[in-house]
Amino acid sequence: MIGAMAEGARILGDPRYLVAAERAADFLLKTLRAPDDRLLRTYRSGKAHLNAYLDDYAYFCEGLIDLYEAGGPARYLTEAAGLAERILTDFVAEDGGGFYHTSRDHERLILRHREGHDGATPNANASAAMALARLSFHLNREDWRKTAVAAVTVYGAVIERFARAFCKSLAVVDYLLEGPIEIAVVGKPGEADYQALRRELDMRYLPNQILAHLDPATESGIKPSPLIEGKGLIQGKAALYLCHNFTCSSPITDPAQVGTALEAHQKPIQASRLGSL
After folding, report:
1. Looking at the DSSP assignment, which residues form a beta bridge with residue 183?
2. pLDDT computed for residue 95 by the predictor
3. Contacts of 151 (CB under 8 A, 6+ apart)
């Protein structure tokens, strides 16, 4: 829901949806989190309890990334990175890749379950892999990218036979093989030049992207993503940067140039970037 609201705000330009997404995220971060930062599963009548499962971490992590990319504060990307660290600490399966459904400190079970196929919702293993993949490009974490690759390839033989049961996993494969367009937008939200660049960007369907943003007036000291390091306004105007491996082309200040520039960047990444899946 948080991800859907964030996407709605970004694509439709309706700030109400972003407010709703932030309220929901803040509620979870404040109320369904233990003192040691573990997530909790349930909440009723002022009480939150029971350890969260992998899907709780994975879905929430992706939602926080969506929220940041839609224009939410930088702290949401930082919180997403914290959840990713918890996934790696508590859920990763050392024997060949992928993630368990329960954490290391969960109640003892006869079998610690893990699975990779989708059901009525995207499977948690692939959702965790997607969150790690997205964050790996935001934060330049090659180790997280390798973990995401391992989480999908461990089910490779089954995916080949029953591809329709692994749609989320295939989305991760597509994301890793093609690589995201790296976008940085600098400017003050609400001002005409910034909003014009965002509208030109947000109206286009870019399934594989990462988007970092910076308001120099309020967040100059908060830079959770290396993608916005060294970026600034151009002659006082909002600017959009399109990058590849954190190497960026000339900044764009004219909204009319956004579409052409994006088309030039939508190409597969070099094989050396990720290696072979």
Report:
1. 211, 242
2. 78
3. 97, 98, 99, 125, 126, 128, 129, 132, 172
| Cα-trace Rg, the chain | 19
Other Cβ atoms less than 10 A from the Cβ of 141: the count is 18
Q: Which two tokens stand for residue 155?
A: 């089910």
Cβ–Cβ under 8 Å, residues 231 and 167:
no
Structure tokens at 34: 């233990």
pLDDT at 53: 92
pLDDT tens digits for 223-242? 678 898 888 999 999 999 99
Could you report the per-residue pLDDT of 8-43, keeping only the tens digit for each? 999 999 999 999 999 999 999 999 999 988 999 999
Rounded distance between C-alpha atoms, residue 128 and residue 258, angstroms: 31
pTM (two decimals): 0.92
Domains of the chain: 2-178 (1.50.10.10), 181-270 (3.40.30.10)
Task: Please name which of 208, 221, 192 lies closest in space to residue 73, comparing C-alpha atoms.
Answer: 221
CA distances from residue 246 to 40, 75, 136, 144, 182 in whole angstroms, order as listed? 36, 21, 12, 17, 7
Q: Which two tokens stand for residue 205?
A: 């369907």
